[in-house]
Amino acid sequence: MLPTRFAAVVREAKERGYTEPDPRDDLSGMDVARKLVILPPEMGAPVELEAVKVESLVPSALKDVAADGLLDALATYDVAM
Known about the structure:
Distance between the termini: 18 Å
Structural class: mainly alpha
CATH superfamily: Dihydrodipicolinate Reductase, domain 2
Helix content: 25-40%
Strand content: under 5%
Radius of gyration: 15 Å
Largest sheet: none
Number of helices: 4
CATH architecture: 2-Layer Sandwich
CATH topology: Dihydrodipicolinate Reductase, domain 2
Number of strands: 0
Number of domains: 1
């Protein structure tokens, strides 16, 4: 069985309504980073957003691609992902 391609997984997640309208908002990692900053102060350990290392899953070449063409363009990075 062949593994599911990254672009296909992102496309399905978008079609099911699991992603933001532009999946780059989810793939950038910033949403998770913001959530990580919210939780520690509740335990008495404040953390600044700048202290969270974020690695985006959005290839740099796709940062300026129109949102409606992103999923097709993302397929060119399936092997790398």
